[in-house]
From TrEMBL:
This is Thymidylate synthase. Residues 6-318 form the Thymidylate synthase/dCMP hydroxymethylase domain. GO terms for biological process: dTMP biosynthetic process; dTTP biosynthetic process; methylation. The gene is thyA. Its EC number is 2.1.1.45. The active site is at 200, 200 (nucleophile). NCBIfam families: PRK01827.1-2 (NF002496), thym_sym (TIGR03284). It comes from the Bacteria. Its main location: cytoplasm. Gene3D superfamilies: Thymidylate synthase/dCMP hydroxymethylase domain. Belongs to the thymidylate synthase family. Bacterial-type ThyA subfamily. (6R)-5,10-methylene-5,6,7,8-tetrahydrofolate binds at residues 223, 317. DUMP binds at residues 25, 180-181, 220-223, 231, 261-263.
């Protein structure tokens, strides 16, 4: 198996050398391949990239948000996590309630026009403050629809019953570890129209062997520079948490990608990252006094020995 984060760096190099240039939903343009798999041995270290700083606090608070079944960005904002803001903001500025400056294509315009960027930042700050302070506004515009947390914890059936997929899969791992049905799906075709962003990481499956828990994720769409480093760390942490609850060691995290792409405005950032030498992976320590995955908070995680290269900024495509 490839060691450390080299599997990720190999993916970046492969895309640069082999990708097709394609248009995309955001009108940014991508360099894309279809079908790729990476494997990470979780016993060798926690797969948080070292060739650029990846903010673990944001990874962990987003995962806890999913686990809680929450779909409103208010929880994230309270934890100073802004990674989902743009999708909620987009809904607000497209609504009849919005009366501020024109925010059409704000993601691209904010990168191209410094004057517009200042206006955009002011509107985003106003939006965040309203989500935090105004309950009615937060309920209407802070919610992202039936995204990950809803599908993981409260999948609605045709009989209007509710399925807690995450709780059920933990029970299944504990009671029938050899099952081939340890699956959680975020892709609910009926709910796609109501989501601010249809799930990119669509389905994950667990596997138990030799007292170790492994996880495989299928990701239909993968923003390789910004999104994938978060996804790797998030599902690695999820595997650690569920292994802890089920009395297992951690095995592998296997990351299977559909459309794996580098946005055209991330090329220089990727090249900067690839020029750096990887460092040893950190270790993750979780609070063993917590028995259930549903009881964890941010303070229950400790990252040990994380000494990465500096972060590399890049615009997000909305």
């Amino acid at each position: 198996m490839i060691k450390g984060e080299q599997a990720y760096l190999n993916l970046c190099n492969y895309i640069l050398e082999n990708a097709a240039e394609r248009d995309d939903r955001t009108n940014t343009g991508t360099y894309s391949i279809f079908g790729h798999q990476m494997r990470f041995d979780l016993s060798e270290g926690f797969p948080l990239l070292t060739t650029k700083r990846v903010p673990f606090r944001l990874v962990a608070s987003e995962l806890l948000w999913f686990i809680k079944g929450d779909t409103n960005i208010r929880y994230l904002l309270k934890n100073n996590n802004n990674i989902w803001n743009e999708w909620a903001f987009e809904r607000w500025v497209a609504s009849d309630d919005y009366t501020g400056p024109d925010m059409t294509n704000f993601g691209i315009r904010s990168q191209q026009d410094s004057n517009f960027n200042e206006v955009y930042k002011e509107e985003m700050d106003r939006f965040k403050e309203k989500v935090l302070q105004d309950n009615a506004f937060a309920e209407k515009y802070g919610d992202l629809g039936f995204v990950y947390g809803k599908q993981w914890r409260n999948w609605k059936t045709s009989q209007n019953e509710s399925i807690d997929q995450l709780k059920d899969v933990i029970t299944s791992i504990r009671t029938n570890p050899n099952s081939r049905r340890h699956i959680v799906s975020a892709w609910n075709p009926e709910d796609i129209p109501s989501m601010a962003l249809p799930p990119c990481h669509t389905l994950f499956q667990f596997y138990v062997a030799d007292g170790k828990l492994s996880c495989q994720l299928y990701q239909r769409s993968a923003d390789v520079f910004l999104g994938v480093p978060f996804n790797i760390a998030s599902y690695a942490l999820l595997t650690h948490l569920i292994a802890h609850e089920c009395g297992l060691e951690v095995g592998e995290f296997i990351h299977t990608l559909g459309d794996a792409h580098i946005y055209s405005n991330h090329l220089e950032q990727i090249k900067t990252q690839l020029a750096r030498e990887p460092k040893p992976l950190p270790q993750i320590r979780i609070n063993k006094d917590k028995a259930s995955i549903f009881d964890f908070e941010l303070s229950d995680f400790e990252l040990i020995g994380y000494e990465p290269h500096p972060g590399i900024k890049a615009p997000i495509a909305v």
